[in-house]
Amino acid sequence: MLPRSKDQWALLLLTAALIALGKPAWMWAFPLKPMLQGEFHSVAHRGTGRATIYRGMKGELILEVTNARTAFRPDLMIYLLDAPDAANNEDAAKARCTVIARFDPAGANLRFRLPAGLDLSTPKSVTIWSPKYGVNFTTAPLRPVVY
Q1: Contact 112, 37 (CB under 8 A)
Q2: Which candidate, 66, 88, 67, places its Cα nearest to that of 139?
Q3: At residue 59, does pLDDT exceed 90?
Q4: Helical H runs in 43-98?
Q5: Residue 76 contacts by C-beta under 8 Å, 6 or more apart in sequence?
Q6: Gyration radius of the chain over CA positions
Q7: Most confident of 29-33, 51-55, 92-96, 115-119
Q8: CA atoms of 135 and 76, how far apart (whole Å)
Q9: Which terminus in the chain has less CB density within 10 A, N or C?
Q10: With b meaning 16 or more CB within 10 Å and e meaning fewer, what string describes 64-74?
């Protein structure tokens, strides 16, 4: 479908120009730059979705959990781990962690501001963990986003 208004044509031309410059259009349109990203995989329970850490215009770090699905428990928490891939409960329990927030399975896209001063070389994975039972439900190993 072709653009109908001048604004739509302008947006189309701007997007084409930015792509021609070798930069994805979203890099110019949004103030958040993805730094680390990973896909959730099953550990103790089936898990799917994506975790992305963004850097904002002012240097703030934001964790976005997108389309995360796993078995529901009311006590589930989202942790950043220094373990590259917590593939079992023991790896997750031994890793140093930063508690981010309670996991809300009703939210399709969850965003959390990360602690100020967090070193981006520290978080290696994001896990959804049950502190009550000491169970790693699902983990997303993080990798640098390459442009």
Answers
A1: no
A2: 88
A3: no
A4: 89-94
A5: 70, 102, 103, 105, 128, 129, 130, 137
A6: 18
A7: 51-55
A8: 9
A9: N
A10: bbeebebbebe
Question: Residues with Cβ < 8 Å from 5, sequence gap 6 or more?
Answer: none
Residue count of the chain, please give it: 147
Distance between alpha carbon 134 and the CA centroid of its chain, in Å?
Answer: 23
Top-confidence residue, 17 or 94: 94
Coil, strand or helix at 109:
strand
d(CA 98, CA 19): 37
pLDDT value of position 77:
93
Does the structure show a pLDDT above 80 at 66? yes
Residues 6+ apart with CB under 8 A from 124: 81, 82, 83, 84, 85, 141, 142
Report the Cα 61 to chain-centroid distance in Å.
11
Rounded to whole angstroms, how far apart are CA atoms 37 and 47? 16
Task: Decide: helix, strand or coil at residue 27.
Answer: helix
Which amino acid, 136? N
Highest mean predicted confidence (pLDDT) among 5-14, 19-28, 130-139: 130-139
Q: Measuring CA to CA, how many Å separate 99 from each of 1, 17, 32, 53, 96?
A: 46, 42, 22, 15, 10
